[in-house]
Design goal:
The chain has a single domain, classed as TIM Barrel (Alpha-Beta Barrel). It is about 40% helix and about 15% strand. The chain has ten helices and eight strands. Strand 7, helix 8 and strand 8 form a beta-alpha-beta unit. The chain is globular, with a radius of gyration of 18 Å. It starts with about 20 loop residues before the first strand and ends in an 18-residue tail after the last helix.
Length: about 300
């Protein structure tokens, strides 16, 4: 493998499947398509992305909303292919957009077939000082509390976005009470937060960041070593956060076996075991086997 800048546009190689397959617990299929198709979300391109994932032994993917348009698209995609499930909500940086009408639309989407979670919601103190359009923390906190309540009322899992906001996230969860099924997507804490998650029975979803070798990832990798297997999920967060040694390259759901293998080595366990357990955890957390079959075909469907 080369190491020049030209490699950054080269997708990672297709990995060999692991055992009976793995689940990508958090991805953004609409953003993957937009990267490939210059901003478009064509059903034919979606089918290609899903087929690549299938070739790598990825049996299911939870595509997660970023904004209201993304939430509508995620619900459409989940009802178009049996490999896709959806999480709907507003990203915390977009909390300014959580109007009464947006709340109504998100709540309606939670009742759609194959919508299996609320999110991603939470708090993000990284972008507050880097983007002028990022919602301030007090607005994020109120929006997070609303998503928590929605997850409780609908009986759906809550998918949490936590960036540079561990204490604030825990404060809101303590004040509001966490839903019965809570998932820390792209888990970014250290051993202390991992132990809190384990004590509470919250899932920790590990992405490519847990495979990074830089010094700032050391505490995260320690946490990934210690997490109880029954609460570990694995995700791509594609098209972002491509795992080591392909960091910076385009990411897609097919890449998740690379992450599983790296984490299995870190945890000193067979990749087949981690792949199986994390897939079973995702099946249980999101109740994937209980979902109805899609009502439309991605090949003939139309994007929303």
């Amino acid at each position: 493998m080369g190491s020049g800048k030209s490699d950054r546009n080269v997708p990672p190689p297709l990995p060999e499947p692991i055992g009976d397959g793995v689940v990508d617990a958090h991805t953004h299929l609409d953003a993957c398509l937009a990267r490939i198709s210059s901003g478009h979300r064509e059903p034919e391109v979606l089918a290609q992305v899903l087929d690549r994932a299938t070739s790598a032994g990825v049996t299911a993917m939870v595509t997660t909303a970023d904004d209201l348009d993304s939430a509508r698209w995620a619900a459409w995609a989940a009802d178009s292919d049996p490999r896709v499930f959806a999480a709907v909500g507003l990203h915390p940086t977009r909390s300014n957009d959580l109007t009464e009408d947006a709340r109504r639309q998100i709540e309606e989407l939670t009742a759609q077939p194959r919508v299996v979670a609320v999110g991603e919601s939470g708090m993000d103190d990284y972008w507050t000082t880097r983007r002028a359009d990022c919602a301030p923390l007090d607005v994020q906190r109120e929006a997070f509390a609303w998503h928590i309540d929605l997850a409780k009322r609908t009986g759906l899992p809550l998918v949490i976005h936590d960036r540079d906001a561990h204490d604030a996230i825990l404060d809101v969860l303590d004040a509001e009470g966490a839903p019965p099924v809570t998932v820390f997507h792209c888990f970014s804490g250290g051993p202390e937060l991992a132990r809190r998650c384990a004590d509470e029975g919250w899932y920790a979803s590990l992405s490519g960041t847990a495979t990074f070798r830089n010094a700032s990832a050391a505490e995260l990798r320690r946490a990934a070593q210690e997490m109880p297997a029954e609460l570990v999920l694995v995700e791509t967060d594609a098209p972002f956060l491509t795992p080591h040694p392909y960091r910076g390259r385009p990411n897609e759901p097919y890449v998740v076996p690379h992450t599983v293998r790296d984490l299995a080595e870190l945890r000193d366990e067979p990749a087949e075991r981690l792949g199986q357990i994390s897939a079973e955890n995702a099946q249980r957390a999101f109740r994937l086997a209980e979902q109805p079959q899609p009502s439309r075909s991605v090949e003939r469907g139309r994007t929303q």
